[in-house]
## 1
Amino acid sequence: MATKNPRSNGCVLCRRGAKMVLFVTGRCHRACWYCPLSRERKGRDVVYANERRVADPSDIIEEARCMGALGTGITGGEPLLELDRVVGYCTRLKDTFGSEHQIHLYTGMAPDGETLVRLRGLVDEIRLHPPPECWPRILESDYARSAVAARRMGFSIGIEVPALPGIEDLAAALPLLDFLNINELEWGETCAAAMRERGLEPEDGLHNAVKGSRRWAERLCGDPKVHWCSSVFKDSVQLRERLKRTAANTARPFDEVTDDGTVVYGVIEPKCPIDALLPLLEEGEFEDCGDRIEVAWWVLVDRGDELPGTKYIVERYPNGGMIVEVTPL
Ligand code: SF4
């Protein structure tokens, strides 16, 4: 679980599931061995708002509305390789939802003065990700210079890195920062081989956490500016709260919303013309989807015999998201 240390504003909203994740590009100038990006995103110039593929900036606004976002976390790849894109999206988000829509930017670069000027007023919080090679000399690095300049310009500034051996070297940078976020190191499909080469292994078969990661960060976690973000917290609190917000805004009257924020409904693929079945259903308990009827799941359980066709129950992420389970009846 997260520590009791004070969090950045971005983290507070994240805990409430109120932060949209805006992935602005999968391109990156670095090649971190622990990079957690999936095959679908790594190295590809694609944009996602949460899990929604973005074809037009209006998709971002639509996704933010669906989940009732109070803020946005900009990530990648390396977002600053697409600075114009970042500026354009942030401008649109602030114009639509107001300046109080909190935006944090995660970057592996050390933004210079010119870049910071372009981000001022659009990005509230910057999370620098210096590479582990520069941690032992962090105060002599461009990241330290960037942190000082950003803080002077009014940004909330922090470092956000995965827990790796040697992370204690970052203690030297704490006086320059508002926060230091440490993410539990996570096992991923594209970095599994590099992890094995280093003798690392997953904590268990259920979670993505890498065994021992917490231990490397333990001493730093006593500092009030340090916030530990566990893999379980990301999966079970952050994601669940976001799904619940989206479900609250988008579920149909007959969708059952679970404690995990998923929605459950029944489906009939009729063997007769759909119009013949509709009079058997009550208003508000179904939707005619053309080739099938989506209906309250309990209608199928209670009265399935009266409704000829292939019937099953679907559990999925809200707003047409990922299917979790299909149970045939
Ligand atoms: S900076 Fe981030 S996106 Fe780029 S390679 Fe490293 S972990 Fe991956």
## 2
Amino acid sequence: MRWCQGYSEPGAGSDLAGLTTRAEDTGDYFLVNGQKTWTSGANLADWIFALVRTDPDVPKHDGISFVLMDMHQPGITVRPIRLISGASPFCDTFFDDAVAQKEDLVGKLNQGWTVGKRLLQHERSSGLRVTAGAGASRRKSGDPMGELAKKYLGETEGKISEPAIRDMVLKHRMKQRSLQLTQARAREENQSGRVPAETTSIFKLVGSTLTRESADLQTRLMGFQGFGWDGDQFSEEERTATRSWLRSRAVTIYGGTNEVQMNIISKRVLGLPD
Ligand SMILES: Cc1cc2nc3c(=O)[nH]c(=O)nc-3n(C[C@H](O)[C@H](O)[C@H](O)COP(=O)(O)OP(=O)(O)OC[C@H]3O[C@@H](n4cnc5c(N)ncnc54)[C@H](O)[C@@H]3O)c2cc1C
């Protein structure tokens, strides 16, 4: 069974609580009308979990509910969004008198914001993988970026030839290692009963920034070869690197943008004034 996440709307992304997709209580079930966007995998999904407005007359966070809906029903239409890469990993999702069963309300009526927020914390803490770029991460070495630099820029006595590049690769590796150690510590704390909270925004922010930096560095090391799209002059690894670089732009957006994570960290972790 495949699921998709119906949070974002054309007018509600970072300001998610401003969502307007309505769910009206008909007595037996909820009737849902509105639109979600950027719904990853909606074209393949069997079910959607969605945040919907069930009370428009209260402060925005207090009128939202969390419902599950069967995607195989006449009231739901999915339109894949085509990207620059040619792929369509996510969709516009339309609800026209779609039905959400009463038993598929998660948590209490109008308290869905808490459920949705909690799920986002899990997404932010677990969805990230710090990679050295798709091509580089497939290598067996413990230092894939260093290996890549040597391949494209040459090596002297076992070291990357250019000191400035060596410095860049080393600093990047140190940042990755610091994040991995911090993640490992957080995992240990979770096993002892603590659960992810606002601090997961730190992992999202640092992890997604590093993923982007990895892709940037990788294409930079490859030089012109790092911008291959098709044709025999580019290896498969180089073509993959180009696509990874394009894809890496998304990681600082989905699950809440970097700016949103910084807002959460300042307010909820550091306690700075709103
Ligand atoms: C690959 C990918 C997959 C996705 N999958 C899903 C999915 O499955 N389900 C789903 O519901 N959504 C999904 N999304 C949507 C994603 O959650 C939103 O794109 C994201 O929350 C940002 O919202 P927005 O696109 O409306 O941008 P906006 O909110 O319009 O932001 C535009 C810019 O303004 C900045 N900004 C906005 N508010 C503030 C503020 N208060 N302070 C500082 N800066 C601010 C943002 O950081 C950003 O740079 C996906 C997005 C991507 C890229």
